[in-house]
Amino acid sequence: MKSKVVFILISIVFFITQSSCSTLQENQSTQHVGVFLPCSSPARWLTEGIEIRSILEDKGYAVELYYANKDSLIQKKQIEEAVRSGIDAMIVAAVTPKDIIKPLEFASSNNVKIIAYDRLLTNTESVSYFVGFDNFLIGEHQGTSLVEGLRSKGDGPYNIEIFAGCNQDGNAIYFYEGAMSIIRPLIKNGEINIVSNQVLFNDVCIENFCSNAASKRMEGLLSKYYSNGIVLNGVLSPSDSISIGLINVFDSTNSFSHDNYPVITGQNAEINNLIAITNSKQHSTIFKDSKLLAQMASSMIIAILNDEIPEINDSSSFHNGIKIVPTFLCEPVLITKDNYENILIETGHIRYEEIFANE
Known about the structure:
Layout: H1 2-26, E1 32-37, H2 44-58, E2 62-67, H3 72-85, E3 89-92, H4 101-109, E4 113-117, E5 129-133, H5 135-152, E6 158-162, H6 172-188, E7 192-194, H7 201-204, H8 211-225, E8 234-236, H9 240-251, E9 263-264, H10 271-278, E10 284-287, H11 290-305, E11 327-330, E12 333-336, H12 340-345, H13 352-355
Parallel strand pairs: 1-2, 1-3, 3-4, 4-5, 5-11, 6-7, 6-8, 8-9
Antiparallel strand pairs: 10-12
Helix pairs in contact: 2-11, 3-4, 5-6, 8-9
């Protein structure tokens, strides 16, 4: 059923993308908004794009959705073509911010208002506002959750390994630094031990947050550092896709059972990871209310197109290398086995049947 829904969403997005240029030409009196998202998978990008489109169209705006298939060159061309077609504002979640600086400057020179979405647009004067989640706080939640999970299993010291997100993703360094702000003091006092000594961000990052790449790295770590009886107690994982890669490795070996399964963190509250949490294979994840993010981005667009000042809650923290970008931060929520029902199921974000389909 889930795959059928995703297929329908993809079909909708295909139709929207194909018809975007003609829509611009046919509605010259209507203000137009381009929404540029990095990819259509995971499904969050599909649902968020459609949510933004629905909100803005209800307010009388024309909206064109663009998905870049994780390719900066595609996104660059999409932005340039949309600006030439005559958009008035854009919401941009960049594949790689540095690769679209010139298209953003081209847009700004044509009086297009630009909102950075989920990922800060760096090293450019062109961005007006940023809406996202507090990514440093996400990392702090992950680090704190990892430590709490380790301590709940007994006294230290604890052997852990560090995984980080893609070094081309502007958010990944914030996840890492937030988590390490919790973990570094415990490394220093001896409570936590990194057996591999691989701690630096560029040594532990996983390209595109890829499950297979995470699996491959973990297999190498286990073979090299944990084959002589040393126990792996936990893994800092910045995302659910990486967490699934780790779980696949742990499930494929006889070295880990319910009693000694490593404590694993995550992010995005994906269904498979929530199932893993209920089975005590993943300790925690981070829920980011993408609907709220889409609503805030839409409200920003409406404000700036009406020459009003959008709501912000951070006017000083986000320097993109050129300037401080006024920001609205949505709050992430830590999800564990103890609270997932209250936060996700009872609020309607996820159906009970999605997690317990086999019951």
